[in-house]
Design a protein that fits this description.
- It contains 27 helices and 20 strands.
- It is an alpha/beta fold.
- The strands form five sheets. Strands 10-9-11-12-14-13 form a six-stranded parallel sheet, sandwiched between helices. A five-stranded parallel sheet has the order 1-2-3-7-6, sandwiched between helices. It has a five-stranded mixed sheet with strand order 16-18-17-19-20.
- It binds thiamine diphosphate.
- Thiamine diphosphate (TPP) binds next to helix 2, helix 6 and strand 4.
């Protein structure tokens, strides 16, 4: 698409349409000063917030939104809009001011006045699920930049699949010093450079200031060289020179590489004593400073008032792409019906439920016919062999553990700069960047990203997983080698506290299936979870297939269910009465079932409840939970992780067989014996509680 015309196309009175360069500059300044004024006034009114970045980056944002970007305020979710990511989320007032000025209908002046107040569309940091026009939730520095890489990946992938007539947009990022100091930025820029994501443009707010003071206190990286080394086109401009910014953006759009534009700016631009200093970063400027800034900027309007001519210019800039949007709609309408339906369905996030159900049923029938004693990571691969062809929006990957995570199915093409249509991404050893890019892909829409790494490295993904949960995004993390069961690699690689730590994240669903059938069911649930991320914790070691036959229902959906009824005393069996309830997840379900046999030999009736998903189970009604937990006097939980979380099932007086220390390096069978996670120890724990030991 050619660069959009300046605002003049829609309204002759706008900045760029005027006669002389000085007039242009004055008109630009007034547009930018509107952002500055709104930011300082809103922060002042809220008595908290960050005026420095919006005031410093106002010129960049003005050029970007009034000259370069395409979007439609009346349809913020238009699929082919350019994406803008404010990676430095603390500067949220920049984005809110721009959305208001451009005419996003819900971003009213009343919302600007309610900055940071309860229930407003203007929370402290941008939240994608709260505010139309906000593409991703930012605040934890570095995440937004990595999200943007994912958005650019999704754009390139969908363009390859559906054609550039329908998918052809840019992703712009405003990143701060803090964003670029965070380690995740290195993973993100390296991946983007490698994949030659040339429609990704990062505008670096190069103000040399962070909270502690001048950047020189802590950093001396040459960012231009750094980005160039990662395969980017990189340049420096004066971030207060609109022409230079516009020119750099034009070059960036023509580049065959992703582009960095390092824009030298003054934080708090316009503030008489605080500009250029950390004092303008994160607190209200104060009445005197604001008065002085108004004088310096020549801004005579009272707080929260935008002069009519300035608002008109901004609003007409907001309408610049209306024609492009209409033309896009016509191109979409002209697509063959089936292709259009697929595109619309994929962007809507609806999966083809019948195809998913058929794939799941087929897998269950296969496993019923030929039960398999395989690791759940291998079961997951078999599941993906059926799911990937059935669900075209699945885009997989791994952080350099493809062969271990089993996330690449037969015939899955690799995504590369030469083939963006590929559906498997080699993310490299970049777990954090991978998880954050996946968030960006999900936010972009049209794809469901899934990935692979070891469960222990969920720690390296955690900040991004937390944001996926907060944003309610469907991303699926395949995390294998889920316990001491991985054996010889030892305690550095053996997750112990990770299941509990992940379960602690609200709106994240953690699955730990016990066999092939549960693995398929958990995959189905993860794909169906349109409004939250999932983790599939899978084993390295082989496990017996415990589920026989074909269940029409997805038994994992309730999170826990009785997999083996009470066995032992004849009358107990008849009445379904148990002396002991054993609860277990994943690889330990088979151990619990073996313990049930040992207990039966001692005349003790034990039932086994498989708990593939504690999160889902805890979300059931109290009544259902009570019925699954049962009323056996003794409850024992078995999981090769820490106890935390299990008391909700077994009570504080229940027995727990699991880990309370780090693991060790040895063959896994030995480790299970060493740490006492065996059928014998489970039976012993139950007998002790019964007073029979
Ligand atoms: C991961 C993370 N660590 C720390 C913070 C707290 N924090 C907010 S802004 C900031 C740095 C500010 O410097 P810079 O990024 O240059 O922004 P500017 O001062 O230019 O607005 C920090 C440390 C954060 N938001 N995210």
């Amino acid at each position: 698409m050619p660069p959009l015309a300046a605002a003049s196309a829609a309204a002759p009175s706008t900045a760029a349409s005027s006669a002389s360069p000085q007039h242009d500059r004055m008109a630009h300044d007034r547009l930018a000063n509107a952002i500055r004024a709104l930011a300082m006034d809103a922060v002042e009114q809220a008595k908290s917030g960050h005026p420095g970045l919006p005031m410093g980056a106002a010129d960049i944002a003005t050029v970007l939104f009034t000259q370069a970007m395409k979007f439609d305020p009346n349809e913020p979710a238009w699929p082919d809009r350019d994406r803008f990511v404010l990676s430095a989320g603390h500067g949220s007032m920049l984005l809110y001011a721009v959305l208001h000025l451009l005419g996003y209908p819900r971003m009213t002046m009343a919302e600007i006045k309610r900055f940071r107040q309860s229930g407003s569309l203007t929370p402290g940091h941008p939240e994608s699920h709260v505010t139309p026009g906000v593409e991703t939730t930012t605040g934890p520095l570095g995440q937004g930049l990595a999200n943007a890489v994912g958005m650019a990946i999704a754009e390139a992938h969908l363009a390859a699949e559906f054609g550039k007539d329908i998918v052809d947009h840019h992703t712009y990022v405003l990143a701060s010093d803090g964003d670029l100091m965070e380690g995740i930025s290195q993973e993100a820029i390296a991946l983007a450079g490698h994949l030659k994501l040339n429609k990704l443009v990062v505008l670096f707010d190069d103000n040399g200031i962070s909270i502690d003071g001048p950047l020189s206190l802590a950093d001396s990286v040459d960012q231009v060289k750094r980005f160039e080394a990662a395969g980017w086109a990189a340049t420096r401009v004066d971030g207060h020179d609109p022409e230079a910014i516009a020119l750099a953006l034009e070059k960036a759009r023509a580049s065959s590489k992703p582009s960095l534009i390092a824009c030298k700016t003054t934080i708090g631009f316009g503030a008489p004593t605080k500009a250029g200093s950390e004092k303008s970063h994160g607190s209200p400027l104060g009445a005197d400073e604001i008065k002085g800034a108004r004088e310096r900027l020549g801004w005579t309007s009272p707080a929260f008032e935008v002069p009519a001519d300035v608002l008109t210019s901004w609003r007409s800039a907001g309408q610049r792409a209306a024609g492009h949007h209409q033309a896009w709609k016509q191109r979409l309408a002209a697509l063959p019906a089936e292709k259009r339906a697929q595109f619309e369905r994929r962007l809507s996030g609806k999966i083809e439920a019948d195809k998913l159900a058929a794939a799941v049923r087929g897998l269950k029938e296969t496993f019923a016919k030929t039960p398999k004693e395989i690791a759940t990571r291998a079961a997951s691969e078999l599941a993906l062999d059926a799911l990937v062809p059935a669900i075209p929006e699945l885009v997989g990957g791994s952080a350099d553990l493809t062969g271990s995570n089993n996330t690449k199915t037969k015939g899955m093409a690799v995504m590369s700069s030469a083939a963006y249509g590929g559906r498997f991404i080699h993310y490299g050893v970049r777990e954090h960047g991978m998880a954050a890019a996946m968030n960006g892909m999900a936010l972009h829409g049209g794809v469901i990203p899934y990935s692979g790494t070891f469960l222990v490295f969920s720690d390296y993904c955690r900040p991004a997983i937390r944001l996926a949960a907060l944003m309610g995004q469907r991303v699926i993390h395949v995390m294998t080698h889920d316990s001491i069961g991985l054996g010889e690699d030892g305690p550095t690689h053996q997750p112990v506290e990770h299941l509990a730590a992940l379960r602690a994240i609200p709106n994240l669903t953690v699955y730990r299936p016990c066999d092939t059938v549960e693995t398929v069911e958990c995959w189905q649930l993860a794909i169906e979870s349109a409004h939250g991320p999932s983790v599939l914790a899978l084993t390295r070691q082989n496990l017996p297939q415990l589920r026989q036959g074909v269940d029409a229902d997805n038994r994992c959906a309730a999170g826990a269910y009785e997999i083996a009824p009470a066995e032992g005393k004849a009358q107990a069996k008849a009445q379904g009465k148990a002396d002991v309830s054993l609860f277990a997840s994943g690889s330990e379900v088979a151990i619990a079932i073996a313990a049930r046999r040992l207990l039966a030999e001692r005349g003790v009736a034990a039932r086994v409840v498989s708990v593939p998903c504690l999160d889902r189970f805890m979300a059931q009604t109290a009544e259902l939970r009570r019925s699954v937990i049962g009323d056996a006097p003794v409850k024992v939980a078995v999981e090769a992780g820490i106890r935390q979380g299990w008391d909700a099932v077994i009570g504080t007086d229940g027995a727990f067989v699991g880990m309370s220390s780090f693991g060790a390096s040895a063959p896994y069978q030995e480790l299970y014996r060493h740490f006492g996670i065996t059928p014998e120890k489970v039976a012993e724990a139950a007998l002790a509680k019964l007073g029979k030991s």
